[in-house]
Design brief:
alpha/beta; 30% helix; homodimer; 7-stranded mixed sheet; Maf protein
């Protein structure tokens, strides 16, 4: 079975590939479909955006499509940046700019008040019109200085007590064991194992 | 692990119990929570309604909640009754009234034009705020006269070529092998197997 992954983010794509490794699934990416249309992420939730991206790509290519929408929710910022995580410092912002904005907004906030979570919704859209969605979250807190150079996005500022490290201080394999995306991928993996065994389209 | 099922429909509850049998999960029902609030199914899709019901019940009880929203889409009726399946012949309509309305609207439509599908979205809402959704569909056609007295809803009018029978002519165990709800439950089962093994809340 082929599945196309609806992301232009190389970090996400790498994690998705790793999280689904070993399944009898061939993962394609947008690089294989250069003409695939851009989808505006204008939904009001991670789920709405993930479903919109997956549905659009599945409709365009005719093959099952997987999309991830995810972000950081900081309690001291009333859940911001949330669905605006990727463009927190403006459209086209770099990871460094987004991280700098986050640190600046949290300036002077004490460690115990810097609680936050990463949330990830993965949607899987099927050519027959079905959509499955799964969600993973991980609790942590925002560091006062970045740590580590692995990962992407807000990883250098996100401290996981489970890992006793920031998400940028561990290799991807270790991050996925604890991360929001790793947990969502583990669930999608469960669903895909079912579909690989019993393809819906075959009527079996 | 306990899960509460957000349905007052005894037919649905029976199928959900059967579909999740054998999992290390104790299924509770609304009968165990008589004070649980009614939820208005005013969403514009099966998914929206299922998520709304599951979230509300999970928030009310503090335990994971599973909700099903499902219905019949008839091609000759441009997808009706759809999300209005349970109340097609009006609020509080009986199965017999809904079936009669469907037959009446399809009067004179030839068998090959009576194609239809059942669609089922199951949402699972978790106390940590996550929601997983899975979807199952089954293709079939609408009979000209009801057949069988098993099942519920539109089952006597829904002919499955896979089963070579209406959904009301087979016992629940057989219906679940082919049905929209059976397919959705098989996916939820996969997800739950993951969660039973590795409870999200435990941080493992």
């Amino acid at each position: 079975m082929k599945i196309i992954v609806a992301t232009r983010n190389p970090g996400k794509l790498r994690e998705i590939r790793l999280g689904l490794e070993g399944l009898a699934v061939e993962l394609l990416s947008l690089a294989d479909f250069p003409a695939a249309p851009e989808v505006e992420e204008d939904g009001d939730s991670f789920a709405a955006n993930a479903v919109k991206k997956a549905r659009a790509l599945c409709a365009d290519t005719g093959i099952p499509a997987l999309a991830d929408d995810s972000g950081l929710e900081v309690d001291a910022l009333q859940g911001a940046p949330g669905i605006r995580s990727a463009r927190f410092a403006g459209e086209g912002a770099t990871d460094a700019e987004n991280n700098a904005k986050l640190l600046s907004l949290l300036h002077g906030v004490r460690p115990e008040k810097r609680t936050a979570r990463f949330r990830c919704v993965i949607a899987l859209a099927w050519p027959d019109g079905r959509v499955d969605t799964v969600e993973g979250i991980v609790e942590g807190r925002i560091l006062e200085v970045p740590r580590g150079d692995q990962g992407f996005g807000y990883d250098p500022l996100f401290y996981s007590s489970e890992l006793n490290a920031s998400f940028a201080e561990v290799v991807t394999e270790v991050k996925l064991r604890a991360s929001h995306r790793g947990k969502a991928l583990a669930r999608i993996r469960q669903i895909l194992q079912f579909d690989v065994k019993r393809p819906e389209g075959s009527g079996t």
